[in-house]
Amino acid sequence: MNIDKNARYMKSHEWAKKEDDLFVIGITDYAQSLLKDIVYVELPTEGTTFQRGDKAADIESVKAVEELKSPLSGEVVEVNTVLEDSAESINEDPYGNGWFIKIKPSNPSEFNEMLTPEAYEKYLETIEH
Amino acid sequence: MNTTKEGSAKDIQKEMESYLEINNVDELFADIPDSIRLKKPLKIAGPLSERDLSLYIDEVLSMNKPVISFLGGGAQNHYIPALVQEVITKPELLNAYTPYQPEVAQGMLQGLFEYQSLISEITGMNVTNASMYDWATSIAEALLMSVRLSTKRKKVLITSSIHPDRLAVVENYLAGPKINYELVEYDAKTGELNLADLKEKLTEEIAAFYFENPNSYGVIESQAEDITKLVHAVNAFVIVGVDPISLGILKAPADYGADIVVGEGQGLGNSLSFGGPHFGFFSIKYDKKIIRQMPGRLVGLTKTYDGNQRAFVLTLSTREQHIRRQDATSNICSNQSILAYGAGVYLSLLGPDGLKKTAEYCLQAAHYLATEINNLKHFEAPIFSGAHYNEFVVRVTKGTMAEVENKLIQQGLVGGYTLEKCHPELGEVAIFCVTEMHTMNSINKLLTVLIEMDKELGGR
Known about the structure:
The complex is a heterodimer. By secondary structure, chain A is α+β, with helices and mostly antiparallel strands. Chain A has 4 helices and 9 strands; from the N terminus they run E-E-E-H-E-E-E-E-E-H-H-E-H. Chain A has one domain (14-127): CATH 2.40.50.100. In chain A, 21% of the residues lie in helices and 34% in strands. In chain A, the strands form 2 sheets. Chain A has a 6-stranded antiparallel β-sheet. Chain B contains 14 helices and 15 strands. In chain B, the strands form 4 sheets. In chain B, strands 2-8-7-6-5-3-4 form a 7-stranded mixed β-sheet, with helices on both faces. A 4-stranded antiparallel β-sheet of chain B has the order 11-12-15-14. In chain B, helix 5 runs parallel beside helix 12 (337-374) and helix 12 (337-374) packs across helix 14 (440-456). The model of chain B has no long low-confidence stretch (mean pLDDT 93). Classes of the chains: A alpha+beta, B alpha/beta.
């Protein structure tokens, strides 16, 4: 499973990366491998505000529907509209082109409470068969 | 268990009880609380032998009187080609329970795909689901779908020219999610929708407007295009309920801007069956986001893994209950798809020409009857000036419609659907429905009785 060294993680398999004063958010390689082919995502509108843990997006694959829960509190300033026609970008490049939303954080310290890449990797070992 | 031993049913039962280590069958129901157990026998007659039961049923059925009926109101007596029955009573189709697994049910899935395609063709919409329970629930689901897609809007508008039974079902569905609705008035002279009233009630709060075409008075909503323009101007959804056979001659709802089309599918090769089972059809225009809010099963066309054969499957299943659970678009998970299958057979047998001819007969026969009734001194038909399809409202100006009904029944005829319960303002009226099952003989038989009644009331 791929891990991005620049990101931090949630046990629910979301990642966040710092980009200037914003955070970019998506789902991990492990998550997309479980979902299989992703066919559709329902993204929030710009301007929506979330508390950490709120549902930010619906991810629909050929076999299941999952929620992306925002790992950080803040306001959505940009959504990845590419996903509207190319949801498969999430499967192909989950940490790059497959990003979901960019958030202006209301409480940036929440990022430090997320799992480090090493901690997430360790966590994956305990759940992967 | 010793399977080679022969014994009476009692012996076998004892053997089973001993294997299960119980003393009698009642012990298997031990976890049903005593407080809710039935303590005395039910007050019903005892079992009959097959012969006695057969004789009894014959006796009851012999009390049926065949009548010629002019009832409509959503369920109509249309001809059912023998081939429809021949196809849908095939055991592989009829007996299968929720037959949607592609590996065993290609026949069923293909038939439903054809049905979907045919309904799409006659409505002009390009996505049709594999059917709903009936017209009433289709309306309700369409309204709920519109509200879901409108995020902040929680109110809908409904034509007052909707059958009261359908409105009652819709009210049940709107009650749970607390969606408010308001009725839009009809024009007392034309019987069509009152556009001014619609315009006044259309605000940015409204998620959708539902109307019927023809409406429940049989009147064709000639202003359908104006209606859709007004509704779209406030970014609300247009939902229209139509008679599928009427689409043989009336404009396809897609052509006047409908967003969701629903209706009763019973007339397409399914019997009246004393009220059901029937089925509802549900069609939309394809949109990535909107289709995901659509309820019901959807059959899609794909290829096998090796790419060599075409195959039919259920598609976009992630909308449905078995995947989304409480987040599903609807709790519909079963339906009467064998009837939709029959409708597909019906439509493919009639083809566009057959459907047109059927609709034309319905239209012309209804107009003939209405004209003849209107010639009578104490009858008015139709009471509205708007154009009508195969249903129209008849008023008796002396005496009551109930008296007319009684007189008709004595002659083996059933008149129209009376409206005094839901529309007392219209007076002594009933909606008469004419289909291709009414030969000139039947229509003239009805007229003979009405002419006689008219004379008795002091006619010409």
